[in-house]
Fold these 4 entries.
Entry 1:
Amino acid sequence: MNISQFKDTFFEKYGNRNNKPVLFFAPGRVNLIGEHTDYNGGFVFPCALNFGTYLCIRKTNDKKLKFSTLNFNEDQVTELKELFRNEKKSWINYPLGVINEFLKKNIKLTGIEFLFYGDVPNGAGLSSSASIEMVTAVAINEIFEAGFSTLDLVKMSQRAENEFVGMNCGIMDQFASGFGKKDHAIYLNCDTLDYENVPLKLGDNALIITNTNKRRGLTDSKYNERRSECEKAVELLQAYKPVRNLGQITVSELDILEKYIKDPVVRKRARHVITENDRVLEAVKVLKSDNIDRFGELMNQSHDSLKNDYEVTGNELDTLVYEGRKLKGVIGTRMTGAGFGGCTVSIIKKEHAQDFMLKLSKVYTEKTGLKASFYQPEVGDGAKRIG
Ligand code: GLA
């Protein structure tokens, strides 16, 4: 990102070079392990990426909110209201939902000019939407001196996504975008929101993200279906002990599922969440002791569980993972994010990384007719002002 060029584009669009805009960045994320555990009060282990959403922003003296993006040609202008309603399918619902959160908290806003630019591949499950929300939240918080903490901004962004955009996600994506730290992963307890930045020391291994490039169609409805299956499991487990969420059941209690959950599908869903939580605990421990091989095994087990028990993978993700595992130098590989499409995350010996990408690309196209994309991201910081 060339900051002065981005500001120039801002001036070309909005004029008035005497009133300086400021620049913010919020990252996308990749989750290393701990999938579909966040809304179950469990553990996750994501990290922030060096790609995300940039925002050049400036206050004005009128009451107009002006939105523009370098990603596509869809400028929009709207009058500042007391409260907004999501009326149409538009990209501005992401920033508008966040603006609404500030309005609900009685922060007095004026007109604002926005210029966004995102370099997270869209619809790839790498949290492009959370990065738009977080960059908006951090920017408005600063230019209007609203004084909210990063955790407040994370929660406001999640609420914008849940209530305004209408996607009932957990807190992981916004949290990772807010609290990321360069070269660290975030070990987050989604029940208490306690977290720790754990150094991501991969030694002579590379982190590679592979995009299925499959259009995600049913993701939202299937996501909500999984959430209700987990709620059902919690309801049934009340006969065993009073639990608020599946995160409160440990692997040593797995046996009780058979007795209390008769529906085999609901039982499988619960088993995934409980075993996945345990995998995160172990993954963090082994990473701290530099046991990357075991970390990779846990990633593999995570994918198998997401395929067999949680059933959120599908042919494209499975092809990448199971064909990938046959290749030399692969330490671990799994789907990341909500599933059904999107990306896999893999740890691979650096010396075999090129070969991995070449070979996997070929066999993936043969088997699915699609073309995969590969990224070798850096692990970056959370949302912040950059200029
Ligand atoms: C999506 C959601 C997250 C999380 C993951 C699955 O990315 O936005 O909150 O539930 O799916 O782990």
Note: The chain is about 40% helix and 20% strand.
Entry 2:
Amino acid sequence: MSKNNYRLEELEKLVSLAKRRGIIFPSSEIYGGLSSVWDYGPIGVEIKRNVKNLWWKSFVSERDDIFGIDASILMHPDVWKASGHLESFSDPLVECSLTGKRYREDHIFILEIETKKENKIIAIEASDKNEAEKLVKEKIISIIPLIESESKENPSPDGGTLSDPRNFNLMFKTFIGPVEDSSSTVYLRPETAQAMFVNFLNVLNSSRKKIPFGIAQQGKSFRNEITPGNFTFRTREFEQMEMEFFCSPDDDEKWHDYWIQFSLDWFKKYGIREENLMIRKHESEELPHYSKASSDIDYLFPWSWGELETISNRTDYDLKAHSELSGKDLSYFDQENNKRFTPYVIEPAMGADRSVLAFLCDAYCEEETEKETRTLLKLHPEIAPIKIAVLPLSRNEKLSEYSRNIFDRLNSLYTTQYDDTQSIGRRYRRQDEVGTPLCVTIDFESVEEDDSVTIRNRDTMEQIRVSSDKLLEAINDQLKSF
Ligand code: GAP
């Protein structure tokens, strides 16, 4: 099996593991699900919470130059006028003449392929060229994105032809109050960023902080994506973790480089393998309307490289646009240099759900043991949903009492699970599959003879015996070793 096919197969296995072990479920599943909308289960919610908390710790709590906020999803519609989203937050949409199915024009690739009988022209839907290449088995003679193709015949992936593109705005509309008309139209925010711009003065005045400083928040964003997909990679409802760093226009490039490196280091610190991460600088033609320069942190997903985070130099675009439309002065007076200016903004914008998916993909692994294939998630202990599982060897009264005591001691310090169902082998497998770094096993010797327990390491499967009074020390040492 080729490496690429292997990786795609790996994604299918991860999706099925996620369902089986309570990590991620299709939304409203009993009604047949809702396309590309997902729910986090009891294990997944802990993983996502850990990822969000670690981001908050690194980007907000551990620093004295970043402030957090938690703003509303609904905002004044003028916010989206000033930000440019009403006018230009759209994707080019094309429609198949045969099926009526809609595609993003920039996600269609025209391929000439060599079949046994003759060369054929086909259309493939993919997020980039690499992914398109992986989707065909035949020899590829040429591959051209539809938007660059000069041919008048636009084949559709469904066999018909594709219409000319029309712009489709990605913002979800709703109405505020009981009357549904244009004066009551509001939008579900398509990014969390704008709340940081419209609260710039509030935070500046209440914190009395000098520039440079940042404002950060985490929360839901909504985009009516034309072609969502690849599990939780592209969905219509998702969470973002964004920070707007306000600095002097003279320092913008220095801070841009700083936040790119900071973000890359953050992913590495929590266990993503270096070879699966890269920094990709945007070409000038792909820069969003507000950006002077942008770089992505990309991850090698099972289907191809995909964006986890964009770090953009938004210049003074947003503050100036909001100043103009609202009539409020959003400039800053630099007392030291006796200078007034509109701050520039560097924006690290990360997806919470995409990051969770990358942590899961990177942690997923299968190992051959003597008896079977062992599936495990090698998650960093800080991301692991359960840190320790307490496993009495059997359901015996004495064992249970002793084990419950151990559980109570550990659970006040670490997220711990008590499990006394099924065979010990099965319980180890279950914990391996959700990435629990350590299992503490209690047997009859523990209770009757040596007051000691066994600690099993998820990755090495090595077991050590420690006396119960040294348990905490041993656990701390073991957790540090991952
Ligand atoms: N404020 C800038 C901004 O929103 P973006 O590159 O459009 O920039 C930032 O989004 C991050 O949000 C992306 O890198 C990605 O991780 C996440 N994201 C964007 N659209 C998404 C979608 N449809 N589904 C899941 N995550 C998404």
Note: The pocket of glycyl-adenosine-5'-phosphate is lined by residues 191, 193, 223, 225, 234-235, 238, 240, 242, 307-310, 347, 349-351, 353-354 (CB under 6 Å).
Entry 3:
Amino acid sequence: MNSRLPLIAGNWKMFKTGPEAAAAARELAREVAGAQAVEVMIAPPFTALEAVHAALQGSAIALGAQNTHWEDSGAFTGEIAPPMLKAAGCRFVIIGHSERRQLFGEDDRGVNRKVHAVRRHGMVPVVCVGETEAQRDAGQTFSVLDKQLRLGLENIALGNPLDVVVAYEPVWAIGTGKTASDHQAQEVHDRIRRLLAELLGADLAAGVRILYGGSVKPGNVAGLMAMPDIDGALVGGASLDPQTFARIMRFRS
Ligand code: PEP
């Protein structure tokens, strides 16, 4: 057991209107009281951020966004800037989710610009990395992750290990029902922590939270969380139903 406070994060993707998201957040705020020694974050769509922020007042659940632009303002139609997320109450911002990389052409350079922008505004980037099934089959998992992390975290200076979160999300496990086995995931998390030690120094790397994501459910979360380098979960589909997500955040019971 390590001393890192687990983070259970829900990525609501493009689901829930403002009122629907606020109702789910209120239900989760009631449930979180039963979850011990765990930090919980939910990332609703942009249009629901303010309603969810209001619904979470007085609760320990943190608010996150699913993406950001890297500039503070400008002529970027359809984009959202970090100061807007900060003003809406966000503490975390998910960066480089595989859906953004695969469907919207995001690359490691863009991820790096966003990570810097989020840090500049005092929020915590949740930097997503992960290999595709073809890359895993070709034995490229570690080289893919190396590149994603080296470029994604380039020139990031951290004062505190809690200022960044890494989420390992094998692309083949997202929304597919296939989960990496506990040991498969641990092997990669161990590798990521070694790489973080090289990039950030061993002391900081020891405190950075590395989440696993990919079809996490109430039935598999405890096994994953028992691994020494798995410090939490980034949950997509199973975070949409508050009662299911609550069972995940109570993974110890
Ligand atoms: C995700 O979207 O980050 C994710 C892990 O999705 P799911 O839990 O549905 O696989």
Note: The chain has one domain: 7-243.
Entry 4:
Amino acid sequence: MIADRMKVMLGASSAIRAMFEEGKKIAKIYGKENVYDFSLGNPSVPAPQKVKESFIDVIEHTDDITLHGYMNNSGFESVRESIAESINKKFGTAFSCKNIVMTVGAAGGLNVVLRAILNPDDEVIMIAPFFGEYLNYVANSFGKSVIVPPNPPTFQPDLEAFEKALTNRTKAVIINTPNNPTGVVYSEETLKKLSEILDKKSKENKQAIYLISDEPYRELAYDGVEVPYVTKYYANTIVGYSYSKSLSLPGERIGYLVIPDEAEDFENLASACNVATRILGFVNAPSLQQLVIQKCLDETSDISVYDKNRELLYNSLTEYGFECIKPQGAFYLFVKCPIDETQFVEKAKQLRLLLVGGKSFACEGYVRLAYCVSYDTVVNSLPQFKQLAKETLNK
Ligand code: PLP
């Protein structure tokens, strides 16, 4: 018999599986090209050519023991040093290898840091809408999730509601900018104010509140928008980065944590992340991928492809009468449902449009469209969206 908490998780994920199965069924009837699947955040742009070349180069020119062996649980020192230098060059920071822990993607990094800092029932704040897996990650480390309600239509955090959510059990706050599912980039002003609130509350609690900045979409920003580097505003920031989206490598499972010297209890925190990497069973981030990304630190996938999809979808959907904020980053559009969310998702499905309901992101009454699909898929889906508008708007 499986654990009770796993039964709950199976129940939740079967809804997603059901949607996936439904998509396959519709594809069998209408043909795959006639199903417009906007449900998954799987990059549709290939990794840069340099990534492929680097895989070959690393395999051919690294000795086997280094390439395939165990290492420091935090990762290769030279890779961590290169990453630190690259961040310093971009953001004027002063990190070195001791501030970097290589991780198994952003998911691995979040689980590592939460395991490192949480005592049972410590509270972790998340600002809706957010990536639903955070709830599971916090539960994995026996913490308690506390949700700050969404703040439409801008989806910048409601700072008053945020302040109210903080208690003397608050151990961490997770933010994600550019955001999944809204595509919103938190402004510098928002981050400064949020930091002031956290400073004040940490002093009151006589204990640090860590700000975990989950940044898999950092490089996916459009119209020249700046994504502020959060360690500049708040000393107790831990950054979680991933190459899943920026280099289109989600299956390769590679990312890193940044733990600044200024973070409270730095030495222990960095050591705890090192140990958590080991005891969670990762042991270390994959060695080949570490060496590959070291050679690709200035590369990103061609995000102009997502940008083109973004423009077309946003302009068309708003023209049809749907309400949504124009995303500044990531590859998601978060659209307000003109009718009940479940009915809207169902009606969309009947039109062969696969969307994810806002409930999955703690924000009922919206749907998320992942526009990391081909341009043709976007173009061909537009008559269906027009029909969806006809059937659901002003009802
Ligand atoms: N955080 C957010 C906001 C995400 O959207 C995702 C994946 O979609 C992750 C973390 C996990 O990413 P990774 O593949 O790097 O583990």
Note: The chain has a mean pLDDT of 96.
